[in-house]
Design a protein that fits this description.
By secondary structure, this protein is of the alpha/beta class. It contains 13 helices and 15 strands. Helix 5 crosses helix 6, helix 7 packs parallel to helix 8 and helix 9 runs parallel beside helix 11. The structure holds 2-succinylbenzoate and magnesium ion (MG).
Length: 359
């Protein structure tokens, strides 16, 4: 699916997405949908679309077949023997949650235990060709009502961007995301300088495995650090908070392996007084709908990177597309499961490969 506009981060430019869509079904013909959020290349994390395809077919499906799981909440546990590859797991796990919520005739967000029927939304703005284009983009998103602006930064395109956006919009809720592009040795001065711009957070400045360095950095800053790439499980979250490596957590369904894991992380963070928010991976409507459901959980107190379908796609694969109200909110749907119709015809016209596995 071609993106409406190229999305550039510190690890590269994305102009279109190859997406694995999962459809699970039961004996009665009921269906559930999930989306694999792996990128095409292993630059955000180790997974790719192709690695996920292989792991789902060769390991997730056969393990589930022999595990005889009877409900969605048991899927993550059954798949624990698989190391990493959580986006592959999450695609299947979330699809099974959708199926189960539909069988219970309940919206997925309620079925998961969500407590708010309207979620708060921010946007993630990629690196732009010029600072002027960036501030124009910020202005447009603010006019649409989005509650928080996050801009991508990378070495050589950081302080100047923040200075420009802050200069033009002194009062907005603003954050930056480096996607692991910095190191404590080389970049501590720039990172300390960021501390003067009243940012809501600095997201994943250092490498995913650099928990200790994030803790050292957090001690030097008043701005909260937020971890994205570093958090793949409840254990990661526990260890990060144990050493004060961050004060905010970005939860992504794919990165953590699905709804059960996401819920456990938000619960733990909530007990520790740490706010969480829902991150995005340039999802189609299916992943977006799952993100909306997750964002209704109690601990999701900060605006997420869950925004309108139209920011990414000319034609989304769900009906209606996700829309955002003038106050920068999305209403949780009232229909059962993910709550949006999946446009099978559109998917069929885009499909390059499909495979059915009978368990
Ligand atoms: O770090 O949050 C990130 C997109 C691809 C990979 C990583 C990230 C992102 C985004 C986009 O920031 C969020 C979105 O889907 O709007
Ligand atoms: Mg991020």
């Amino acid at each position: 699916m071609p993106l409406r506009a190229a999305f550039e981060t510190s690890f590269g430019v994305t102009t279109s997405r190859r997406v694995i869509v999962l459809r699970v079904f039961d004996k009665t013909g009921a269906t559930g949908y999930g989306e694999c959020t792996a990128m095409e290349a292993p630059f955000y994390n180790h997974e790719t679309v192709d690695s996920a395809w292989s792991v789902i077919l060769n390991f997730v499906a056969p393990i589930l077949a022999s595990a005889k799981v009877t409900n969605a909440s048991c899927v993550a546990k059954a798949l624990e023997p698989i190391i990493g590859n959580r986006m592959a797991i999450g695609a299947v796990e979330t699809a099974i949650w959708d199926l189960e919520a539909k069988l219970c005739d309940q919206p997925l967000w309620e079925y998961l235990g969500g407590t708010r029927s309207e979620i708060n939304c921010g946007v993630s703005i990629g690196l732009q060709k010029s600072t002027e284009l960036l501030t124009e983009s910020v202005s447009r998103e603010l006019e649409s009502g989005y509650q928080r602006i996050k801009i991508k930064i990378k070495p050589g395109q950081d302080i100047e961007l923040v200075k420009a956006v802050r200069g033009e919009f002194p009062d907005i809720v603003l954050s930056v995301d480096a996607n692991s592009a910095y190191s404590l040795d080389k970049d501590v001065r720039m990172l300390e300088e960021l501390d003067d711009y009243g940012l809501l957070m600095i997201e994943q400045p250092l490498a995913a495995g650099d928990l200790l360095e994030h803790a050292k950095l957090q001690r030097l800053l008043k701005t909260p650090l937020c971890l994205d790439e570093s958090i793949t499980s409840l254990r990661d979250a526990q260890q990060a908070l144990e050493i004060d490596a961050c004060r905010i957590i970005n939860i992504k369904l794919g990165r953590v392996g699905g709804h059960t894991s996401a819920r456990s992380i938000q619960k733990f963070a909530e007990q520790r007084g740490i706010p969480v928010w829902c991150g995005g991976m340039l999802e189609t409507g299916i992943g977006r709908a799952h993100n909306i459901a997750m964002s209704t959980l109690e601990g999701f107190t900060l605006p997420g990177d869950v925004s309108a379908s139209a920011r990414y796609w000319h034609h989304d694969i769900i009906d209606p597309p996700v829309t955002v109200g003038p106050q920068g909110t999305i209403l949780a749907p009232s229909a059962s499961g993910i709550g949006y119709n999946v446009n099978e015809q559109t998917i069929a016209s885009l499909t390059v490969r499909s495979q059915t596995v009978l368990l």
